[in-house]
Amino acid sequence: MKITAVQTFVCNAVMRNWVFVRVQTDQPGLYGWGEATLEWHTRSVVGAIDDLADLVIGEDPLRIEHLWQMMFRQHFWHGTGIVRSTAISGIDIALWDIAGKHFGVPCHRLWGGPVRDHIRLYCHLGGGRMRDFYETPVDNAARFAELAREAVENGYGAFKSMAIPPTQVAEGNRAVAAAERAVGAMREAVGDDIDIMVDAHARQSPSMGRRFAEALEPFGLFFLEEPCWPETLQGLADIRARVATPIATGERLTHLSQFHALFQAGGCDIVQPDISHCGGLSAARKIAALAEVHRIGLAPHNPQGPVSTAASIEFGLSQPDYVICETVSADVPWRDEVIAASHSVDKVRRLALPGDAPGLGIELDLDAIARHPFEQEAPQRVLYADGSVGDW
């Protein structure tokens, strides 16, 4: 069996363009789907996938580790940059889909079989409407409370919010107080039995991140995500040491050595590799093994398209330390139009249930994808009051 083609299909989803990857084989009807979505870099990723295709066409698609090493190590530049790593991820995910189809089993059975009966899901406030999630004014506590109640009414027992504003290296009390009001309003709105996560989006210095973490400690967060710049591993470790709130991070890391450094520094309780960016399912499994050594939980970053979600669910079914799955369900009306999936969702309890279809258990509708062609994402900029550039 040989790979005959690697194709990309771009589908606009407003906040991002989904980049779907199809790896074709010379066996009739046997192909695999992957995803390589990277906001604001769609054309770069598509080009990188075209470049990598030359390395894998003509090769055996079942030699997944061999092909991963080929894509990562060949042509001089290692695949540690975000564009190259995302391109590798898309192809790698598709290869695992092929393997599952070839052997007639879901991907999680290739990795030792299921370790759980279902996977818990959480949403972003606004039910997945990402623009609402990002644009909700941080000082509008009433709006956060409204969105929190809406999430619970939709069956979610856990949700995430961006209740921390961007701040400069050092600021006064205003931003911290606004975050306290927002999180306090959400907690009051939903009670103590609902799990609240707060994403700082890595926009803070370690000192400001520490202040936010300490201020939000009384609200019993499920986890605090990216409380400071991801490059400052010692800052993450310092924040983690000062609060009981679990610290989550890792979505911007793209190589196993970076995760190793994070774990060695003691920088998190929960790691969030993005399967569409970190090197695909092959890399995610290595990250999970390393995390298990350090007894760190897994909660992959997953705000992309439906193939990424299917991969995250299959991955989670096989990983004992997988905590919860990020999911987006209402960002665009055509999300469910472009895919048919064997995974089902218990919408009362918001649990993902395993399917029995082989591979990732999905099929994409190319006609539905074609109805939503590429559109350049709107630029997102963070500027401080003095006009200087902040972290998005």
Compute the average pLDDT: 94
Number of strands: 15
Radius of gyration: 20 Å
Assembly annotation: single chain
Which class of secondary structure composition applies to the elements?
alpha/beta
Helix count, per DSSP? Answer: 13
* Highest-level CATH class of the largest domain: Alpha Beta
End-to-end Cα distance, whole Å, is 45 Å
Would you tell me which CATH topology of the largest domain applies?
Answer: TIM Barrel
User: How many structural domains?
Assistant: 2
> In terms of per-residue confidence, which ranges show pLDDT below 50 for 5 or more consecutive residues?
127-135
The outline comes out as globular
What is the H level of CATH, i.e. the homologous superfamily of the largest domain? Enolase-like C-terminal domain
Helix share of residues? Answer: 25-40%
CATH architecture tag of the largest domain: Alpha-Beta Barrel
Major β-sheet profile? 10 strands, mixed
